[in-house]
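thought: user wants a sequence for this fold. calling inverse folding tool.
action: design(structure=
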């Protein structure tokens, strides 16, 4: 097997029971050994090593449908014009449900979950506007997870080999969503709980070390990408839903939009064109030595709570930073970085952690795991855990959508060669782009999406780490630059037309001037005696007027007639 790295059976990194106590350790919780601690700059005791209780890892991938088009140059502009239409996607989603019986709108399940949370004393997270305008479509998706060409069912271990990182990980769920602007998300959930015999194969083990957890996440990463590619290829194999989407995106019924063939979508293409984020739920953190002490007493899984450490101490530990970044060298993190992490943590209460750092989020609160077993009531956080996953899916989908739009602005001929288009052609492109950017900004409006105040803070914190603001500013600036190009082009053409009009006007004025002179001459010459003859003829020099002035007008009465010719300059 590719991931056959042996997991340590003992305490792992940091199990140094022979080390001398740290000054001040007498005031520590009894289950937290002094050897769990180290001195930071000789003053503050810091937990050097941590262990984990129950863990759930959710991984979200997102890719925009524009990245799946067979012909980017031919169909991307068509798709963009569709996206610019107000209300188009909501109608499309309703039609997609009718086209494919296995599709359903997520709206109903989200609303049901919020009602359960409210009954448990929690709060409803999402607005009615989100449910009706932004909630995704649930697509048919693989119900299994592939590991070395073997399908793993829900609640199965990823490996039967006890020596691998994958052996302790259980597959929980996978789902494929289509958000209403045309972005696909693929989410998976996995869990492990080493100290719980029922979930770890019945054998007794101490809680998982940070080093072991990092090894498991790294072993998962290539499998996650492979299974995301598998789900996309299943989507591209066709069927009623894909045919419906291809027809609805097209502006000409005879020319449906073409998507890539499954064989054209390799894992490397998927990796480059998608965006992803990891969401890690941790039930509890333990001091490493304290947890081993409980384990060595042959205690039950429920007795490990005594080895728990306050979360404010967890925030000071480099172990947390290692879990967040899957960095095995976490012991070498500088204090300045650890301080910056503490400042970015947004938990409202002292018994919770919500910490995001670009590619991952760690959330810790015991309430997420209180499912109401026995006489203990369920906690509303058990429902909120799924809302956090949905919020992460939504954020990653926005990120993939903006990245796709940025690629369009930079690479598509309709924008790249905008200065070569006529103003009316260019204007249609710009109007569509401005409408799409307006839709994107609307889809990011938290007051439109979320009722719950802390959920807004959580989503905003994730977006800050994902550099949403920088990306949307860059997209907006490209659209503004394109608009300026069209404005300058229109101004230049208007100036050219004005010059031509001025020239034409001058020509007309000259003609009027000449004819006015002729009219004046004729008026003078015709006084007292009519003009004998007027001949108007066309010559190469322009309009010509020839007049015969009768005898006696310009000279003696017996003089000969005088011929006068007037020609336009």
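)
observation: tool returned 569 residues.
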């Amino acid at each position: 097997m590719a991931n056959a790295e042996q997991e340590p059976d003992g305490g792992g990194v940091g199990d140094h029971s022979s080390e001398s106590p740290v000054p001040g350790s007498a005031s520590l919780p009894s289950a937290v050994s002094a050897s769990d601690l180290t001195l930071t700059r000789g003053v503050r005791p810091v937990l050097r090593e941590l262990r984990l209780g129950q863990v759930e890892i959710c991984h979200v991938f997102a890719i925009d449908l524009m990245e799946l088009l067979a012909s980017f140059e031919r169909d991307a502009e068509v798709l963009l014009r569709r996206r610019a239409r107000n209300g188009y996607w909501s109608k499309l989603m309703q039609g997609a449900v009718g086209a494919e019986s296995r599709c359903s709108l997520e709206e109903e399940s989200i609303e049901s979950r919020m009602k359960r949370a409210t009954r448990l004393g929690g709060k409803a997270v999402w607005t009615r506007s989100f449910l009706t305008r932004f909630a995704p479509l649930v697509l048919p998706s693989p119900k299994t997870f592939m590991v070395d060409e073997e399908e793993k069912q829900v609640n199965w271990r990823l490996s039967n080999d006890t020596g691998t990182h994958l052996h302790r990980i259980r597959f929980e769920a996978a789902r494929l969503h289509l958000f209403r602007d045309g972005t696909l998300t693929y989410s998976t959930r996995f869990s492990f709980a080493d100290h719980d015999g029922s979930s770890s194969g019945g054998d007794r083990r101490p809680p998982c070390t940070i080093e072991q957890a990092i090894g498991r996440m790294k072993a998962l990463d290539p499998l996650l990408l492979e299974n995301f590619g598998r789900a996309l290829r299943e989507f591209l194999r066709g069927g009623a839903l894909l045919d419906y989407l291809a027809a609805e995106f097209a502006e000409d019924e005879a020319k449906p939009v073409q998507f890539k063939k499954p064989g054209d979508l390799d894992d490397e293409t998927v990796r480059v064109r998608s965006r992803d984020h990891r969401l890690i739920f941790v039930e509890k953190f333990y001091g490493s030595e304290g947890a081993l002490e409980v384990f060595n007493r042959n205690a039950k899984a429920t007795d490990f709570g005594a080895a728990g450490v306050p979360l404010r101490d967890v925030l000071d530990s480099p172990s947390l930073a290692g879990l967040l970044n899957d960095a095995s060298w976490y012991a070498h993190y500088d204090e300045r970085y650890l301080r910056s992490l503490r400042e970015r943590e947004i938990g409202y209460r002292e018994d919770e952690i919500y910490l995001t750092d670009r590619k991952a989020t760690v959330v810790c609160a015991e309430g997420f795991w209180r499912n109401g077993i026995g006489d203990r009531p369920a906690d509303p956080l058990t429902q909120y855990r799924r809302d956090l996953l949905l919020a992460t899916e939504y954020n990653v989908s926005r990120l993939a959508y903006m990245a796709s739009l940025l690629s369009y602005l930079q690479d598509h001929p309709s924008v790249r060669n905008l200065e070569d288009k006529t103003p009316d052609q260019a204007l249609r492109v710009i109007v569509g782009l401005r409408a799409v950017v307006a839709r994107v900004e609307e889809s990011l409006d938290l007051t439109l999406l979320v009722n719950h105040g802390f959920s807004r803070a959580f989503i905003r914190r994730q977006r800050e780490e994902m550099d949403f603001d920088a990306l949307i500013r860059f997209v907006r600036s490209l659209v503004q630059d394109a608009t300026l190009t069209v404005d300058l082009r229109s101004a230049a053409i208007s100036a050219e037309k004005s010059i031509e009009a001025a020239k034409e006007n001058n020509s007309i004025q000259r003609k009027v001037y000449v004819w006015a002179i002729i009219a004046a001459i004729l008026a003078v010459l015709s006084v007292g005696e009519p003009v004998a003859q007027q001949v108007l003829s066309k010559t190469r020099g322009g309009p010509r007027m020839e007049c015969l002035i009768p005898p006696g007008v310009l000279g003696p009465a017996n003089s000969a007639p005088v011929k006068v010719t007037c020609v336009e300059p």
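thought: summarizing for user.
answer: Here is the designed sequence. Confidence is low (pLDDT under 50) at residues 1-6, 8-31, 39-43, 528-540.
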